[in-house]
Amino acid sequence: MIRLAIIRHxxxxxALGCVIATLGRAAGPQVYRWVDSHGVVHFGDxxxxxxxxxxxxxxNAEGVVVDHRSAAQTPAEIAAAxxxxxxxxxxxxxxxxxxxxxxxxxxxxxxRDQRTGMLADQIRVTSQYLDTLNTKLATLRAESERxxxxxxxxxxxxxxxxxxxxxxxxxxxxxxxxxNLDEKHREEETMQTQFADDIxxxxxxxxxx
Length: 209
Prior knowledge:
Oligomer: single chain
Number of strands: 5
Radius of gyration: 36 Å
């Protein structure tokens, strides 16, 4: 194999012509050009195995590129490309849905107001129920102060089982409803953001300024 390495950015057209002419006479019409892992440009009648997976070009005797081979992709690059393709397809599907579902920005706003209004009602009901539970818990705790182990009276009777059960149950209900309320607030924020994005994208697709 005849090979010549030239540091990139330093070779000029005249030097390249000499290289191609030299290799063309010595190795025939097929001359390969590739860049190794150190950034060095190589020319030769074939690409060595260590650089076989790198991007390469085939040149004719006049130095014109007649074939090109892209670099082999790593598993990470393949996965990233697949992810980009899925994201692009998801965006195209979303665009189709927007255009097929809505005829105007007002249509999107109307649906947004409807859904956010329903969610706001759910948040209000959940908040009211939480207030009721917290009031009930405060009453139970006040009642528990008359019994051991919360009472400071050494002669206080032990807490009745029913009262202890009610304290545990109501406390658990409060935690569950608070989690439910937090989730609804997150859903509300996500919904507002999604509708804002849909409106912006719809305007972009329709050319609305």
